[in-house]
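A student in our group prepared the protein record below, which I am reviewing. What it holds is a sequence and that sequence's fold in token form. My question to you is simply how this chain folds and whether the tokens agree. Do not assume that whoever made the record got everything right. I have pasted the whole thing underneath without changing anything:
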Amino acid sequence: MTPPRRTPLADHVADAVALLAAVRGTEVIPLDGGAAGRIAHAEQRALVDLPGHDDSQMDGFAVSTVDLSGDGAEVTLPLGPTIAAGDPPGELTPGTARPIMTGAPLPAGADLVLPVEESAQGLFSTATGADGTVTLTPASAAPGRFVRRRGSDTRRGDTVLREGRLLTPARIAHLAACGLRDVEVLAPVRVVVLSTGSEVRPAADGEPAAGARHDANGPGLAAALAEAGAEVVRTGTVPDDAEQLLEVLRSHVTAHDADLVVTSGGVSMGAFEVVRHAAQLPGVALTFPKIAMQPGGPQGIGTLEAAGRRVPWLAFPGNPVSALLSCELIARPALGAPARRRLRLPVQLEQPEPSPVALAQYRRARVLPSGQVRMVGGASSHLIGGYAAADALAIVPVGIDTVRDGDLLETLLIPGGDS
């Protein structure tokens, strides 16, 4: 028998992205109102220079190099008015020094700042008046010393945030410093998450009943989708009953106005594949491509008619590694989540590892301090413990049947490991 055609992962991801395009809305939110962790929808440009003017990097004295005798040479200068942060810059009278605080604008005529530690006083005194003097011994009289030039960090019009980037605390601070108050982000997609299978029981303490297993996929997928920016609605588990499956999904889609359904299990070739059975019922339009990847080859994609509309449905395999890997490689890009970092790293192996030549294999792995990547656990899709210990996915591409020590593998960095 000729093996079924395998769909390249990239093609399936493109289908998922297209499927979710209609439900990926946007919203404008204030930077100071829960922007952290959101995903930028549009490029943002600086509205101002940063810094907005030449300013002082130190508490010290604004002076001109023409009034100094050189490095290490003592000089006494009359004091002008003090410049505090927030003051207008004003001017430096030739032959004088003006006390200046960190962040204060450099006065016209000054071209360097000497820190207060290079003065005879060693500190500022409230007794020092505008008619006083200061004795300075500059360690260096180089122009520009301890001066932060206007625009030296960011120029007006510079791109300060790109589409698809995660809003981190540092990026939020940068946007605010560049004069922005609001940011356009992807609106969270509301996702109903459901685990299928008569053997699956809600997570609980202790041993499950004979023949049953705890639901790992529900909590795991909910966490992964939330990390990708989704708003998750958990529904628990359903047995291998297609009509009950659709009833539960439709009720939760309606109650929560959900945008997307994600299920695990019921998409393979067994006798009790509940999602496949549900696809034969009215209001369901699903296809079941086999993806050229391992784990996670069996997939389902399509729509569910609920609440008077067609709701996108991503159906993942039931083994926990397959389900989480599917979420990582398919749901994340479909939701517009930022791409993970990828590196090409040499693999460290004690013996050669086989790989299915027609499939891209995603091995759970750890990045070592040496810069190598080492596989964690075996390749099987039930080995969730290895995934939990991993901080990377080592990708063995299509066309490779054996991986040997030192081979370079594209490596996808994921949260985990010792973090």
Notes: The chain has seven helices and 27 strands. Helices lie at 9-20, 169-177, 217-227, 242-256, 274-278, 320-335, 384-389.
